[in-house]
Batch of 2 targets.
Target 1
Amino acid sequence: MSTHPTTARPMDGTARAAELTARTAAGAAELTRRTGTAPCLATVLVGEDPASVTYVRMKVRRCELNGIRSRQVVLPAGTTTDRLVEVVSGLSADPEVHGILLQHPVGAHIDERAAFEAIAPGKDVDGVTMHSFAAMGFGLPGFVSCTPGGIMRLLDAYGVDPAGRHAVVVGRSAILGRPAGMLLLARDATVTYCHSRTVDLPARVAEADIVVAAVGRPELIRGEWIKPGAVVVDAGYNPGNVGDVDFAGAAARASLITPVPGGVGPMTVAVLLEQTVRAAAVQLGEDPAALGL
Ligand code: NAP
């Protein structure tokens, strides 16, 4: 008989994101009441990649529903780096814009890093600039990358303290795996990064108290790799609503697990909105904490 008769408790990202967004909406309403100015997120989309169009539309809609204005900038696929930097710099300098989201990817011919760096640090509500990365790396306050930030919120909501735990992050992209590891390290986890060159991934994952899957390969992480009682966070999102983790297999061994969909995904947008209202508060001379943020 199994010594770990668990069926993991799901970490309900949809519910936790709704709670965070309700607090954010209340903060946005109070900020608007106090200052006469509603928070404003500028979105910048280059080209017509269908997934990017959908993501931006969804984020804009979520803003509108929660008292955040948006300004949508759509540029043709052939936009040059210079032009994109010019547009983003204009938004950085515009006092009516409080947060900037440059939707990734922007096209291979564009120097994406140059475009990201044109975002003023105080408006980097998607956590993509070197400034925000440094803050995450130092464990200092600042805007976090939204998906990793959402992962940390989920862990907190379910009482998972990363301190002293071994966190294994599978994936090291700049928007997801790498900052997820940085935030876990800042909370005193012992962090291992795995990637495409990692040898013996199953053995590395089997050592984890906390597994963060951030790869983009359907069900790469097998249930039998999971240490009994581990916490499994699946940030992967693959066609057909499939995560990077074999959910059924992992749920039979883990203590907590995120579903796909309804786990990490909703938290990402909730963090974007919260950071937008916090950015607006600071720019409008209000203390975010006084707004409940
Ligand atoms: P990415 O930029 O393609 O990075 C994938 C990472 O996985 C890379 O670091 C890569 O290693 C690593 N990798 C690839 N094959 C591997 C293997 N066989 N074993 C171990 N590591 C492997 O992807 P991403 O942008 O981080 O996205 C990852 C997943 O998260 C995707 O499914 C995406 O849709 C999802 N995502 C979800 C959200 C959300 O809001 N829920 C947000 C962003 C992304 P190398 O570095 O060595 O190439």
Target 2
Amino acid sequence: MSPPIVAIDGPAAAGKGTLARRLAAALGLPYLDTGLLYRATGRRVLDAGGVPSDPAAAAAAAMALRPADLERADLRVPPVDAAAAAVASIPAVRAALLDFQRSFGAERGAVLDGRDIGTVIFPGAPAKLFVTASLAERARRRWLELKAKGVAAALDAVEADMAARDAADAARAAAPLRPADDAVTIDTTDKTADQAFDAALAVVRERLARAGYA
Ligand code: DC
């Protein structure tokens, strides 16, 4: 039996990252935030003076990615948000990052969060969650995060930007954001982080047990 994979997908600021990290700790599994792979790829293209939407430059950056690139402190800034979204729509980039994600989970199992974990990277994962929240609530959370970092932004502008990124993630031809047929949806709009975690852990434990994992 292959080691357990927990796939967590959903739109930006739905609470996936916090949830996935806590699930990984509770289950004793390694955790990978796959958004960092796209962010680090976009960062590399920008650092090299390239254009993130250029397929050749983006694919070269994805192939050159090293684990240390994921540790950089400058991956969650607006220019990298845009660069990551641009490289993520390029099929050659997604192909270059596929092996990294699959081998991450191969040895001990893993919790991975992203947009296509349950649909493309690990379609056979025994436990899949689709974590979502209303656009207004996700925009509010992102705005609070920015405020905490000392970045002044208008809530309307944050919401408009998020709506545009949602539309791009869902409309792209390469691995569009959508729930896997066998994913359980968790809507965190009206849940505290603890409530979302309790609901997610119950679903994941039940799915893993059903698939024969102790
Ligand atoms: O989750 P995030 O905001 O860190 O993701 C950064 C970008 O990468 C975002 O535009 C969505 C994209 N992404 C993706 O296409 N597939 C993934 N598995 C993870 C992220």
